[in-house]
């Protein structure tokens, strides 16, 4: 049985009709995006912000910090990530999605989101999850292990909507990496959005408004019986 990561949770503990699992970036924590939840105005949605495992990160001189995977070198293309860690974190994130289903939230009422490393993991796991998801949110992200996508991707999520947002001035994850990830999955009639913002490796209020619209579109309010 896969362990459940410690998480920050906001929203209803019981009776939630939808869920957003949101993955933070390198060196951050599950507290990183909790302040944005009130902006989204989704009172019946449970927001789950897990803390990534602690591990040594090569590009940060081997310092131990919250990280979904080690980054061995920086790349403007693919590569640099430690595949073993990607697979380990994918199992942990999948366990969180499964737990939301066990709590009574249908898979097609779950959005998987993330920023930077977390965005890369959200895209990786979302494409491979075996139950239909409501959507994916990829903020300042990129694609991990692209050579494995074709044979690992789950057909049931072949049409899952994806929102990409990226800063055009990002020095950490160049916008070109985000565009490559977008172009790789914007196939087969899938609904894929791309939004650019004039900022660096961060998020803005304008970007959060785009996320808010996406969440309301794909997690519409459930009528009361």
Low-confidence stretches: none
Q: Biggest sheet, strands in spatial order?
A: 1-3-2-6-7-8-9
Class based on secondary structure composition and strand pairing:
alpha/beta
SS summary, helix count: 6
The CATH architecture designation is 3-Layer(aba) Sandwich
By CATH's scheme, which homologous superfamily applies? Alpha/Beta hydrolase fold, catalytic domain
The CATH class is identified as Alpha Beta
How many structural domains are formed by the residues?
A: 1
**Structural Rg:** 16 Å
Tell the overall outline. Answer: globular
Largest sheet: 7 strands, mixed
CATH topology: Rossmann fold
Could you please describe the fold and organization of this structure?
The structure is a single chain. α2 (83-102) crosses α3. The strands form two sheets. A seven-stranded mixed beta sheet has the order 1-3-2-6-7-8-9, with helices on both faces. The relative contact order is 0.15. It has six helices and nine strands. It has a single domain, classed as Alpha/Beta hydrolase fold, catalytic domain (Rossmann fold). β4 (54-57) and β5 form a beta hairpin. The chain has 225 residues and is α/β, with parallel strands linked by helices.
């Amino acid at each position: 049985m896969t362990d459940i990561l410690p998480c920050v949770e906001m929203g209803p503990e019981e009776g939630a009709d939808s869920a957003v699992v949101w993955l933070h970036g390198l060196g951050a924590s599950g507290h990183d995006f909790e302040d944005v939840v009130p902006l989204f105005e989704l009172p019946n949605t449970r927001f789950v912000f897990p803390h990534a495992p602690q591990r040594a990160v090569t590009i940060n001189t081997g310092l131990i910090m919250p990280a979904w995977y080690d980054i061995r070198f920086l790349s403007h293309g693919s590569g640099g990530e430690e595949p073993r860690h990607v697979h380990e974190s994918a199992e942990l994130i999948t366990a969180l999605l499964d737990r939301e289903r066990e709590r009574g939230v249908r898979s097609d009422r779950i959005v998987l989101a993330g920023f930077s490393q977390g965005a890369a993991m959200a895209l990786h796991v979302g494409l491979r999850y075996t139950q239909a998801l409501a959507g994916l949110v990829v903020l300042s992200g990129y694609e991990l292990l692209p050579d494995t996508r074709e044979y690992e991707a789950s057909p049931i999520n072949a049409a899952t909507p994806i929102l990409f947002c990226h800063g055009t001035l990002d020095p950490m994850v160049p916008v070109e990496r985000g565009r490559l990830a977008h172009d790789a999955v914007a196939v087969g009639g899938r609904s894929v959005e791309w939004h650019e913002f004039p900022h660096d490796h961060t998020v803005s209020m304008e970007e959060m408004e785009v996320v808010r619209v996406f969440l309301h579109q794909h997690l519409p309010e459930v009528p009361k019986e």
